[in-house]
Design brief:
The complex is a heterodimer of chains A (325) and B (305).
Chain A: H1 2-19, H2 23-53, E1 59-63, E2 69-73, H3 84-93, E3 100-105, H4 114-123, E4 133-137, E5 146-150, H5 159-163, E6 169-171, E7 177-179, H6 189-193, E8 199-201, E9 230-232, H7 237-241, H8 247-251, E10 257-261, E11 266-269, E12 275-277, H9 278-285, E13 300-303, H10 318-324
Parallel strand pairs in A: 3-13
Antiparallel strand pairs in A: 1-2, 3-10, 4-5, 6-7, 8-9, 10-11, 11-12
Helix pairs in contact in A: 1-2
Chain B: H1 2-21, H2 27-30, H3 40-53, H4 55-58, H5 79-82, H6 86-95, H7 109-120, E1 144-150, E2 155-164, E3 167-170, E4 175-181, E5 186-194, E6 200-204, E7 217-223, H8 226-229, E8 233-238, H9 264-304
Antiparallel strand pairs in B: 1-2, 2-3, 2-6, 4-5, 4-7, 7-8
Helix pairs in contact in B: 3-7, 6-7
The chains are: A alpha+beta (325), B alpha+beta (305).
């Protein structure tokens, strides 16, 4: 731009000379205009440089994963696309070479309900929405009462999966029965088919539906939960993938839960972290399945409530009241 | 006078009751000291271990959010917990009592000391005393564990040796544990054994422990006394297990499986039904055509005649 200015400056004196002005006047004008142009150009250039260098971005407040609030320039934010397909594929496929089993020792359960709260925390459920629940049991008036944690039994012959009309609920190679909330149409056939009442339905907007909005759906965690669909115990398949024990198992303070792999004939206690032979544990303690007569072949074993470690409170205690409401 | 005796008796009884609830630690265990100095790195490692193994009962240190058990698990920052000597804490972690589990076979003693170092970080007055180095401790880095398996006897042999006085010598009388690695933890094989004069410890391996498809099992032998030997251990994979292959659970054809895994009878019944219905429809259509044709022919016949 300054160049073109100079050109016009050069042209002007020529025409001036033609009109008969003095050489002195020409130099005077030339000098003045040239200096002004140089100064103006420099000012514009330095202004441009300044604008370029000064931190002119908008800042956005961002909460980091280690819970610090930091400011980041808006233009340095990049959208990361999580491969949703990967979550779906790995969730459908399951973990190769494993057959997961759970053993629940009824003699140790004191109804601490830590398993329930850990599960609800992980899967974004309300206090009255259960993937696992501890029931107050008394078979008949003359038999001893006991507490019974009851998750999904992850049957090897699952009636719930057989009735699903849209292939939303399925059984994986490692034995886990999962539900795909993105396929589920909410017909609730599976709830009707399940003899263990292990499934729940999202009648209302899920607890963290606003906070979870836009998060990639993890089929192994059922988060974000979706209104109008089924949710159920997942044996914490997201944790198993990392080689960790399920949420409920590691939260139990009383050593009720054992979890492991039938193929390796080993189960690990969630509280003491001691590993036992599955076959020995079942044989020596008289382990059993719930309702084996139905032929559902559950993957959850129970050890009978003998020599219970706790005093059973009156049956009309708080838990029962909770369950009624 | 009688009343005074009675009240004395009552006091004695109460104190007995209180002491019955106390967890008595044998003097020699209580005097045990950590083999290493507590540092930021041990506290950090201890914090991770605490989160996974202790927090579910004892809660967060200093927050008094332990769960309600009988007896109540003390808060790690509380005077009750901090009143224990290092050795007493170690003893309690190892032995366990009532609802407190024993971590003897699940957490190595080095890691237990790391947990203790984390617990001590909540006590500002704490000054650590370190155990004096024992005779063999100098050889700690050189301890070698060698695992072999004899097929005839189905026994796994661990040979422990260390560099002492510039010679490789067997370590006698050291307690060794053998573990088989499983997906969520380590399975104790046989029981803890002491090495003989040749530094050998022999474990009877169970005949029915499943290995991978070729029978391989990851074994890990550890020396119990970390203070003397450091974290000496050997991880070896040996073909000691029963070769196990179990097909995926969703491989068989079943009603509940995906479309591709439909039971054959169902598939055949379905195809047959569809074919039957369509062939009936075609049959009816063909019959209509035949009637139509017969009609045309008849008309033709009447016109012709």
């Amino acid at each position: 731009m300054s160049n073109s200015n100079k050109d016009t400056n050069n042209n002007n004196p020529q025409s001036d000379q033609n009109r008969g002005n003095s050489r002195r006047a020409f130099f005077k004008n030339f000098g003045l205009i040239g200096a002004a142009t140089a100064a103006g150009g420099a000012a514009i250039y330095s202004g441009f440089k300044y604008e370029e260098s000064k931190p002119n971005h908008d800042f956005v407040k961002v909460l980091t994963s280690d819970n610090r609030l930091v400011e980041v320039p808006r233009d340095s934010i990049k959208d990361i696309k999580v491969d949703v397909n990967r979550l779906q594929l790995q969730g459908r496929e399951g973990l190769k070479g494993h057959r997961f089993v759970m053993v629940i020792d009824l003699s140790k359960c004191r109804n601490a309900r830590k398993c329930i709260s850990a599960c609800q925390g992980a899967h974004h459920l309300r206090p009255y929405e259960y993937h696992i629940n501890t029931l107050v049991m008394q078979e008949s008036p003359n038999t001893a009462p006991y507490y019974m944690p009851k998750p999904c039994q992850h049957c090897d012959n699952p009636p719930c999966v057989a009735v699903c009309p849209v292939d939303a609920t399925f059984k994986r190679q490692d034995g886990i029965v999962l539900i795909d909330n993105e396929r589920c149409i909410g017909c609730r056939f599976c709830i009707a088919a399940c003899p263990y009442s292990a499934r729940m339905f999202h009648w209302e907007e899920p607890l963290m539906s606003v906070a979870d909005k836009g998060k990639p759906y993890n089929i192994e965690l059922n988060v974000p939960q979706k209104k109008g669909t089924i949710s159920k115990c997942l044996f914490s398949s997201d944790r198993l993938r990392e080689g960790k024990l399920p949420y409920c198992v590691s939260a139990c303070p009383n050593g009720v839960y054992y979890f492991g792999d039938e193929n390796q004939d080993a189960v690990t206690n969630g509280t003491t972290k001691v590993t036992h032979r599955l076959s020995e544990l079942i044989r020596e303690n008289g382990g059993y399945h719930l309702m084996p007569e139905l032929g559902t072949k559950p993957r959850v074993y129970y050890l009978p409530p003998k020599n219970r470690l706790f005093e059973f409170k009156d049956v009309k205690d708080k838990t029962l009241e909770d369950q009624k409401t | 006078m009688k009343k005074r005796y009675l009240s004395l008796l009552l006091i004695v009884l109460i104190s007995f009751r209180l002491s019955a609830q106390e967890w008595v630690v044998p003097a020699e265990n209580g005097a045990k000291l950590s083999p290493f100095a507590f540092s930021d790195s041990t506290r950090k490692a201890g914090a991770v271990l605490f989160q996974t193994n202790c927090k579910s009962c004892h809660g967060d240190p200093g927050k008094n959010n332990a769960i309600a058990l009988v007896p109540p698990p003390p808060d790690p920052a509380s005077a009750k917990m901090q009143g224990n000597s290092d050795g007493a804490l170690f003893f309690k972690l190892v032995s366990g009592k009532g609802p407190m589990p024993s971590f003897k076979n699940t957490i190595s003693s080095t890691d237990l000391w790391r947990v203790i170092s984390y617990i001590r970080s909540f006590n500002e007055k704490y000054v650590q005393q370190i155990a004096p180095k024992s005779g063999i401790a100098g050889a700690a880095e050189n301890v070698k564990v060698l695992l072999t398996w004899s097929k005839e006897t189905n026994q796994v042999q661990a040979v422990i040796s260390a560099m002492k006085e510039k010679r490789i010598q067997p370590i006698a009388g050291a307690e060794v544990k053998l573990f088989a690695k499983r997906y969520f933890g380590n399975l104790l094989i046989d029981e803890a054994r002491n090495t003989d004069a040749q530094g050998k410890a022999i474990f009877n391996f169970p005949k029915d422990l499943p290995g991978d498809s070729a029978g391989f099992v990851q074994l890990s032998a550890r020396l119990t006394d970390d203070a003397a030997f450091g974290e000496a251990k050997a991880d070896t994979t040996l073909a000691v297990g029963v070769p196990t292959y179990r097909p995926p659970l969703n491989e068989q054809r079943a009603m509940w499986n995906v479309v591709q895994k439909t039971p054959i009878w169902l598939l055949l019944a379905y195809i047959f039904t569809v074919l039957a219905v369509w062939s009936f429809i075609f049959y009816v259509l063909l019959q209509i055509r035949a009637i139509y044709k017969a009609g045309i022919n008849k008309n033709q016949d009447t016109i012709d005649s």
